[in-house]
């Protein structure tokens, strides 16, 4: 992928990530999150991870986002917009996050491999799904089944939690 | 030329943005969205390392399997978390973390 496309999608992702935090309307935050995840999926594809990119779009921009919007609609959160901002606490939060960002940049800057370009791939289109799938079913068969049980438990848990009265 | 460091910096910045959101926002649903941002920042650096560790022209697919697991667990986590938020809203009629202070010292 050309460098300008990388920077375009990276800045898109970061800008809409900031919009998630800054927006006071939860619906606007959720929609900014969709755009941010679409930029992230483009970055995955720029790293030749097409399968992960597609999964990112399907799971996050599709399923997770519908869940978020549905819950926001269900709870009717417009009253939350009128709260006052606690400026000293906000400044402290931004300062801590900035310190974290500076630390991460410092560590990456001193990282030996950080300046090296990516090694070339054998073909322009890689058999992505086949490779991930065979690894998943050969080397990671047990974790895969455990994940299946986890998703089942989560489904049952959600049904129990959404019942009107917990006993 | 885009290097590994660029991807790691972008990933770190996304993580910092998500972290700032968790620190700044008081609405529990927004905090939840920012947690998702942080999870995805970790995924980005994993995929970048997967591409960087390519041997004989094939990326290291172990990292991509790991990302696949993370996405699955995150989806399950979102479903359970939002169900908890709905249950909380039914009990207290609020999604504001300052109104939920029964564990506060």
Please give a structural write-up.
The complex is a heterodimer of chains A (167) and B (105). Chain A has 167 residues and is mostly helical. In chain A, 74% of the residues lie in helices and 0% in strands. Chain A contains six helices and no strands. In chain A, α1 (3-22) runs antiparallel to α2 (26-46). The longest helix of chain A has 26 residues, at 50-75. Chain A is globular, with a radius of gyration of 21 Å. Chain A starts with a helix and ends in a 6-residue tail after the last helix. Chain B has 105 residues and is an all-alpha fold. Chain B has helices at residues 4-24, 28-52, 61-92. Chain B starts with a helix and ends in a 13-residue tail after the last helix. Classes of the chains: A mainly alpha (167), B mainly alpha (105). The interface between A and B is large, with 83 and 71 residues.
List keywords for this structure.
heterodimer, A: 167 residues, mainly alpha, 6 helices, globular, B: 105 residues, 74% helix, 0% strand, elongated
Mean pLDDT value of chain B: 88
User: What is the overall number of helices of chain A?
Assistant: 6
How would you spell out the order of helices and strands of chain B?
Answer: HHH
Uncertain spans of chain B: none
Report the end-to-end length of chain B measured between terminal Cα atoms.
52 Å
Strand content of chain A: under 5%
Multimer state = heterodimer
What is the strand and helix layout of this fold?
The complex is a heterodimer of chains A (167) and B (105).
Chain A: H1 3-22, H2 26-46, H3 50-75, H4 87-110, H5 128-138, H6 141-161
Helix pairs in contact in A: 1-2, 2-3
Chain B: H1 4-24, H2 28-52, H3 61-92
């Amino acid at each position: 992928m050309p460098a300008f496309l990388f920077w375009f999608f990276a800045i898109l992702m970061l800008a809409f990530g900031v919009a998630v935090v800054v927006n006071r309307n939860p619906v606007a935050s959720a929609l900014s999150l969709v755009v941010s995840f679409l930029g992230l999926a483009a970055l995955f594809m720029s790293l030749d991870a097409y399968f992960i990119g597609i999964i990112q779009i399907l799971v996050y921009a599709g399923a997770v986002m519908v869940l978020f919007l549905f819950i926001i609609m269900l709870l009717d959160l417009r009253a939350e917009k009128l709260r006052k901002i606690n400026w000293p606490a906000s400044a402290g939060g931004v300062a801590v996050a900035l310190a974290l960002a500076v630390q991460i940049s410092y560590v990456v800057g001193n990282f030996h491999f950080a300046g090296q370009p990516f090694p070339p791939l054998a073909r322009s289109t890689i058999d992505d799904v086949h490779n991930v799938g065979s690894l998943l079913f050969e080397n990671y068969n047990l974790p895969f089944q455990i994940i299946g049980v986890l998703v089942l438990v989560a489904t049952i848990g959600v049904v129990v939690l959404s019942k009107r009265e917990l006993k | 030329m885009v290097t590994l460091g660029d991807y790691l910096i972008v990933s770190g910045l996304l993580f910092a943005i998500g972290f700032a959101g968790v620190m700044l926002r008081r609405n529990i649903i927004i905090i939840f969205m920012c947690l998702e941002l942080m999870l995805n920042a970790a995924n980005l650096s994993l995929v970048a390392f997967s591409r960087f560790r390519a041997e004989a022209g094939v990326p290291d697919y172990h990292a991509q399997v790991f990302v696949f697991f993370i996405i699955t667990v995150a989806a399950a986590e979102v479903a359970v978390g939002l169900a908890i938020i709905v249950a909380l809203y039914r009990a207290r009629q609020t999604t504001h973390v300052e109104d939920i202070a029964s564990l506060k010292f």
